[in-house]
Amino acid sequence: MAQFLEIKEAHKDALLFFRMGDFYELFFDDAVAAAEALDIALTKRGKHLGEDIPMCGVPQHAAENYLLTLIRKGFRVAVCEQMESPAEAKKRGSKSVVRREVVRLVTPGTLTEESLLEARRHNYLAAFAEVRGESALAWVDISTGAFRVMPCPKVRLAPELARLTPREVVVVDRVEGDLAELVSESGASLTPLSPASFDSTNATGRLTGLFKVDSLDAFGNFSRAELSAMGAIVDYLDITQKGRLPLLRPPMREQPAGNVQIDAATRRNLELTASLTGGREGSLLAAIDRTVTAAGARLLERRISAPSRTLNTIKARLDSVRFAVEQSRISADLRDALRKVPDIDRALSRLGLDRGGPRDLAAIRNGLEQAGTIAQDMPDDVPPLLADAAKALIGHDALLDLLDHALIAEPPLLARDGGYIAPGYDGELDESRTLRDEGRSVIAGMQAEYSAMTGVQSLKIKHNNVLGYFIETTAKHADMMLSAPLSETFIHRQTTANAVRFTTVELSELETKILNAGNRALEIEKRIFETLRHAVMDQAAQIGQAASALAEIDLATSFADLAIGENWCAPVVDDSRAFDIKGGRHPVVENALRKQGGAPFIANDCDLSADQEAAIWLLTGPNMSGKSTFLRQNALIALLAQAGSYVPAASAHIGLVSQIFSRVGASDDLARGRSTFMVEMVETAAILNQADDRAIVILDEIGRGTATYDGLSIAWATLEHLHGVNRARALFATHYHEMTTLAGQLDGVENATVAVREWEGDVIFLHEVQKGAADRSYGVQVAKLAGLPDTVVARARVVLDALEKGERDGGGQKAVIDDLPLFAATPAPAPVASTKPSAVEDALQDTHPDELTPREALDLVYRLKGLLE
Fold first, then answer.
1. Chain-centre distance for alpha carbon 537
2. Would you say residue 659 has pLDDT above 80?
3. Which of 181, 335, 415, 637 is most exposed, with minimal Cβ within 10 Å?
4. What percent of the chain has pLDDT over 90?
5. For residue 91, which phi and psi values (nearest 5 degrees)?
6. Given this model, what pLDDT does residue 672 score?
7. DSSP H helical segments within 583-624, as ranges?
8. 45 by DSSP, 3-state: which?
9. Measuring CA to CA, which residue among 669, 755, 681 is closest to residue 714?
10. Is pLDDT of 668 > 70?
């Protein structure tokens, strides 16, 4: 227990998994916390300072599942292993304790095990650093080796964390409260480190040592803040991995201007990678993901989270998709081959950390084999992006041959299980396996050889626990074997009442080999495994490039499959200020309607093109008519186009978009003391303070969370600011019909409405966006559809009619309200459905439309009209 307490003292902030034979055991407060979190039994073992020691444990072979539960519940775990066997410990003294060391700290951002990770998502560890007025954000996924850094002012930290969704963020200790709050809002775990970890001078040494270079100039010109952030990550990895650093790719510097700016509220409102409920289902990513590899899925999420705003990059990606669409047969063959590609990146990372097994070697082998097949299937006349990818897939023949000859087809998960090296690859291994598996037949062959040598047919080779293997013959033949020349071969071991026992040098050596054959075979396989692992690591950079190339091909062909299957079009993206969408659709809503077997999605046009002035559509119409869907779908079409995808529309011409802002929906933030209206105003303020003339802005119901005139004035001023200051392309949905007059006052502002029809007091939504303004909001009709009691609906109609009449007569809202009998003792009676047929129904009862002549049908219409009057 003294050993446990000593190791625990050095890892106070983590649960200590203390290896005891086949179990990891936890003691004291660690045991109490783990037992509750894992829902396992809490027991006790021994005493400390006169009190029972709480204890719980988990089996070593099932530890990963327990680790996952603890990590998800916010714990960190220090894994303490036995560094020697009990037998080795006893050599130092009979009471010596087995030496144990913490070999790894398991934290949310440093996971590598396949069972602990989501295959189709990155698992980022980030670090934020501030140095003399500059700040930077660095992030790494040690399960794939991706390493990035970018300058990041503190005001941009929240949007970048929302884009990356890291699992853990490293900051300097004594961190300011607002920074901790930003990290907490992103859902990441906050980890403070000492200022020494963020020292930019030491960071240079850490990075050059990691990548084995003299200078970082080949990777880019990094600021001191960027060096500080990257150095902190490397130092943290050194701490958590106990000096065994993962295989990282050289750091890549991102420029904030290279991606479309999307803040956290917009990502949430547009449901890019997660729905409003927090799950993947219902998000844009779930609706469009047709990738067939894990790496391709991760690349898709990166592209959707950070669409490019570099025109050449966008066009190169669209050209790749266009090729895959036009060459659909080739694209289908490529996708079939890609389905057989394992997760090369993560297998490579585990091998680099020495946590890999034979299956990871097999994953590299199988992945490179498929890469060669895909390169052969790729035509010569492919777009540049795919051509570069194809080049990265070749040149691995030597490594592929080595792995192919060395490994069996389906190796086991763990190296300690053995049996993964192919027969015939290593002669010594084959010999050990033969002795291990066929020892009895080898002994029988030696027995036959000795019988022939001596002429004694009754000679037997036997085995017991005392002598081991021995040769036994009857007493009458013993003298012959003890005489020359046989005495030089056969050595006397034992004489019994009925037999004499011998051995030979050859038999003794064979016995040793047989007894050690199993362990010897495992040792040889482990040695070969290490040789193969080092061979893979020597080509890690080229293998990583091949993995990236496969992901690029997967994404291009999956976008093509999506475009063909969903009838999407190729967008025109240029440097203009155009935004002209014909027949645009919302990909998620359309997908949901199809699954429900309901009505088809109604496509709509949207033209926000403008040369100099702002281009704003002021959208009016009732709730439930599809205004929010229309707003979102146009933002998503712009995002998809700049992510390099075809778009859900008949045609799309999009001038380069720099920012996408969305203020849609209503929610509060009680944890921070913000009401629904305050959240709305904070998000609106962020848009007005940041949007530039290349932005796309969608705003819905600004000002609805406060009093009517307050809300109207805020919405009015917001629209004027978007038009005159931001000069952005925008869709502005509102129920304040008074604002429709702005279309006649501000150039570039147009009225649009969602068409509806009324029928017998009910409202029918047509979901068609048309030019013009709505005359009313149809709120009472929507309330009736929602199921409000008939008495409430009838009373609302009375109040609405009175208010509208007062406005028309000029009496003002206040005067009308004063005259309303709002507190009448007798409530309005509930409407009673008529059971008597109307005159029109009587007239139609005996009419047979198929028997009417055109003249008779016309006469019937006139007669029915007369009955209505």
1. 26
2. yes
3. 181
4. 55
5. -65, -25
6. 54
7. 587-596
8. strand
9. 681
10. no
The whole-angstrom separation of Cα 774 and Cα 769 is 11
Beta-bridged to residue 16, according to DSSP, are: 78
- Mean of the pLDDT values across residues 483-504? 86
Q: How far is residue 224's CA from residue 226's CA, in Å, rounded to a whole number?
A: 5
Domain 567-737+748-755, CATH homologous superfamily name and number: P-loop containing nucleotide triphosphate hydrolases (3.40.50.300)
According to DSSP, the β-strands at 168-172 and 189-193 are: parallel
Binding site residue list: 621-628
- Do residues 387 and 570 lie in contact, with contact meaning Cβ atoms separated by under 8 Å? no
**Distance in angstroms (rounded) separating the CA atoms of residues 825 and 382:** 80
Residue 815 above 60 pLDDT? no
What's the one-letter identity of residue 23?
F
Q: Are strands 252-253 and 146-151 parallel, antiparallel or unpaired?
A: parallel
Residue 604 DSSP code? E
Q: What dotted CATH number matches 2-106? A: 3.40.1170.10
Picking from 601, 596, 599, the residue whose alpha carbon sits closest to that of residue 568 is 601
- Please name the residues in contact with 481: beta carbons below 8 A apart, sequence gap of 6 or more: 454, 456, 473, 487, 490, 500, 502
Question: What CATH class is the domain 289-396+539-565?
Answer: mainly alpha
DSSP 8-state secondary structure symbol assigned to residue 665: S
This prediction has a pTM of 0.84
Name the binding residues for ATP: 621-628
Structure letter (DSSP) for residue 646: -
Contacts 24+ apart (CB under 8 A), 413-418: 413/357, 413/358, 413/359, 414/357, 414/358, 415/357, 415/358, 415/525, 415/526, 415/529, 416/522, 418/521, 418/522, 418/525
Instruction: Report the amino acid identity of residue 262.
Output: I
Amino acid sitting at position 799: V
Answer yes or no: is pLDDT of 382 > 80. yes
pLDDT single digits (tens) 144-158: 999 999 999 998 999
Cα–Cα distance, 580 to 471 (Å, whole number): 95
The C-alpha atoms of residue 776 and residue 446 are separated, in whole angstroms, by 103
Please report the pLDDT score of residue 671 as a whole number.
44
Task: Name the more confident of 202 and 856.
Answer: 202
Which CATH fold would you assign to the domain 114-254? Nucleotidyltransferase; domain 5 (3.30.420)
The CB density around residue 791, as the number of other CB atoms within 10 Å, is: 13
Nearest-5° angle of CA 395, CA 217, CA 354? 50
Supply 387's token pair.
């051509």
Least confident interval from 225-239, 245-259, 592-606, 772-786: 772-786
Q: What is the pLDDT of residue 661?
A: 94
Neighbouring C-beta atoms of residue 199, cutoff 10 Å: 19
Q: What is the pLDDT of residues 403-427, one digit of tens each?
A: 999 999 999 988 888 899 999 999 9
Per-residue pLDDT at 824: 47
State the Cα–Cα distance between residues 20 and 24, nearest whole angstrom.
Answer: 6
Q: Bridge-partner residues for 399, per DSSP?
A: none
Which pLDDT belongs to residue 93?
A: 82
Mean pLDDT of 538-546: 95
pLDDT interval class at 804 (50, 70, 90): low
Could you check whether 114-254 and 439-509 share the same CATH topology?
no
Amino acid at 508: S
Residue 657 CB coordination number (10 Å): 23
Is the pLDDT reported for residue 721 higher than 80? yes
Q: In 10 A of CB 508, how many CB atoms?
A: 14
Integer distance in angstroms from the first to the last C-alpha of the chain?
98
Domain boundaries, the chain: 2-106, 114-254, 289-396+539-565, 439-509, 567-737+748-755, 839-868
Q: Answer yes or no: is pLDDT of 300 > 70.
A: yes
Is residue 49 predicted with pLDDT exceeding 80? yes
Residue with tokens 């007894």: 515
Round to whole Å and give the CA distance between 299 and 122: 9
User: Nearest 5 degrees, angle CA 50-CA 53-CA 56?
Assistant: 170
Average pLDDT, the chain: 87
Strands 125-131 and 134-141: antiparallel
